[in-house]
Structures are given as C-alpha cells and as structure tokens.
Amino acid sequence: MTICLLSIHQVLFAKDVNIYIDADYTVHKESAQGIELGIRAAIAEESNSQFKFNVIPLDHRGNTRRSLANFKKVINDKTERVVFGGLHSPPLISNRDFINKNKVLTLVPWAAGAPITRGDSKNNWIYRLSVDDAQAGGFISSWAVNKYKCKRPRLVLEKTGWGKSNQRNMGKDLKKRKLSFDESWFNWGISSEASQLLIKSMKKAKNDCVFFVGNSKDAFTIFNTIGEILPKIKIFSHWGIVGGKTARLSALIKSRKLHVEFIQSNFSFRNKKQSKFQKSVWNKLTTNFPHIKTPQDIPRESGFVHSYDLTKLYIKALKEKSTTSIRKRIENVRDVQGLIKNYKRPFSPTKNNLNGHEALSSSNYIMAKFNDNGQIELLFDE
Fold it and tell me: Do 2-133+272-364 and 137-265+367-378 agree at the fold level?
C-alpha cells in the first residue's frame, strides 16, 4: 500500500522511497502491525511531499536467516530505500555486519539488544529510537532495588544475543551495588516441565525478585508457573512481553495476582497531560485511519510511537538539500518534534560516542504495568 496525497504534477516527478519493514508478522504480528501503523501515520501527514512512499512489509517470523534473505532482497533495490526492524534483536545482531557492509540504512523502533547499534564505528548504518539494553538493564535493576528493596534477584533470560546483552548490563549494575544474583536461561518455546524446574530452583535459592528478559509466549509459560509455585515474588521485565498477545498474558497476571512491571518509553496517548503537538497527532491519526477510535485500537502503542518519531526523523533527513549520503544526513538532523520529545540532535557518529546512534536515553524510560482492563499503564506517580 502506498500512502500519498499528491497532485498530478507531483506524482509525475515525485521520488520513490521504499520503506521495508523486516519484522515478525507471524508469531508477534501485533508488534509489527504497530510499527507499520506508526510509519504510515507519519507518512500520511506528508500531504505535499516530493516523495512517493511505498511501505513494503517483509515477514521474517523471528528467524535470523529469513531476515538475512530479506536484507539480500533490499540491497538489489536501487531506489531510495530504508529498512525498519522489528521486535526481535537476534536478526539484527546476527546480520549487523552484513547490513553495515552493504550500507543498508536500518532504523530500529523496537529491538533493544545493545550490540545492534554498536558495530563498526566507521561504517555504522543502524540507528535506534527505542529502549536500549545498554541503558535499560541498569534502569530495571535500579527500579527494583531502590523502590522494592530487591536483595537477591534471579535473572531469567532467553538464550539469545538479546538475553546475553541484558545479562551483561543487568549483572554489571547489580555488581556495582554489591548484590548477589542468580541466572537461569531458557530456549524459545520453553515447556511447562522446564519452567517448573526453573522456578523450583528459584524457590530453593530464596530469590526475592525476578528480572525477566523474553517475549510474551515464554512469559506466559514462566509466569504461570511462578503463579503456581512462587506467587508472591515480584517480576520486573523487559518490554518483550508486550510484543505479542497481551490480552492472554494480562489476564493470567490478573488471575494469578502477580506483581509484574515492565519497561516502556514515557509517552502514551493515554497520558493525562499531553502537548498540543501530541493532541494534533492523535487527531490526524483518527482522521487518516478511521478504525482508530481509542488508544486501545493501536496495536502495540510503544511500537507505533517509536516508529512514528523515527519516520519523522528519516523524512527530515530525506528533505535535507545535500549531496552527502543519507547516513550523514540522518546524523545531522536537528530539531524534530516527536511524540516522546523534541529531538535536538538525536544521532551522531559513534566513533567517540557509543550512544551516538541512540535517539533515546534512560531519561525517556519509565516502568509500566497492566491495569485491571489489561491495558498498559505508565507508572508516572509510582
């Protein structure tokens, strides 16, 4: 589907821009749909653009090799093009060198693995506007320790590059605090039997809280077992748990009376206080996409918010009158108003700044929970 409102003259001379979305449209389709809607919403506001935007979804189904095949398709596209990543970090971590070697501008509105944006500093084509594990791990552990006095946490991590990234960063923060902690690893699709062994080991070790890094399907299995064996233990999670079927997971958390909090970025259309700009985006969204009537109608709102802001930054870079590469232009983008904040200079070269390709910082993070209606509630007043 192409989003454009152009005159006949503009159509004849508009420059094609292909926006690929390399994401999981099968198992965690809601996250991919939220990302896609955010891109389309930002494009729909470009009513007099000199560009003809074409949004092209590519389903990698969470598979690293399939993601690589998608990128191989993209490098044969000689038009102006960009790739938006999806929820999963492993495809981006595994294929990072291929992406950079082939100079594929890749924008990340969800996947949080720290290594994604920290490749070859001289040839780094990946930029993120999302939670970043290099900062998120410390944020989650700080919240749990400072607010809830967690003294012996258990890190429960999926056995992927994303899990390893969080193990390093959460562990680093806990070691600074001189706190002992335990670790458990699981593969995607963990069985209930394996989950029971994991939780029983937590009970034996007398862990008083859980730092969870995984996606919604495995969270359901593990949280259900926690409800059976350790129902009073507090769970602090990365945001992968909100990428899939949250209605089922939130219902489980409610029925088991579990204490579960998870990291998010700090804007939602449910926020009581909103700026004129944020309100205007909502009004345009509901006009351009009439099926959106309430924030609950947005599939995975955080993915929407991040991809909307990221698309705004990309369009600003496209419009820059410069003969330099799109990579150089996006690093020089300044003063773009987004939903989360005003981006004064969101990106810069990573040669002297490991966070140079990170548009957000921990000051843009917040913890959240599911309310009684299964909706995500940001914990501003906690």
Answer: yes
Q: Which CATH architecture has domain 2-133+272-364?
A: 3-Layer(aba) Sandwich (3.40)
- What is the C-alpha to C-alpha distance for residues 225 and 71, in angstroms, rounded to an integer? 38
Distance CA 377, CA 269 (A): 11
Q: Kindly list the domain boundaries of the chain, sorted by start residue.
A: 2-133+272-364, 137-265+367-378
Query: Mean pLDDT throughout 172-176?
Result: 93
| Contacts of 147 by beta carbon, 8 Å cutoff, 6+ apart | 382
CB contact at 8 A, 38 and 4: no
- pTM score of the predicted model: 0.90
Q: Are 126 and 98 in contact (CB under 8 A)?
A: no
Please state which CATH number belongs to domain 137-265+367-378: 3.40.50.2300
Mean pLDDT, rounded, for 132-159? 95
DSSP H or E segment with residue 85:
strand 80-85
> For residues 278 and 267, is the Cβ–Cβ distance under 8 A?
yes
Q: Which DSSP state fits 186?
A: E
Find the mean pLDDT for residues 196-209: 97
pLDDT in tens, 324-374: 899 999 999 999 999 999 999 999 999 889 999 999 999 999 999 999 999
Instruction: Say if strands 80-85 and 106-108 run parallel, antiparallel, or are unpaired.
Output: parallel
Contact between residue 263 and residue 239 where contact means Cβ atoms under 8 Å apart:
yes
Is 239 in contact with 216 (CB distance < 8 Å)? Answer: no
Question: Do the strands 259-265 and 365-370 form a parallel or antiparallel pair, or are they unpaired?
Answer: antiparallel
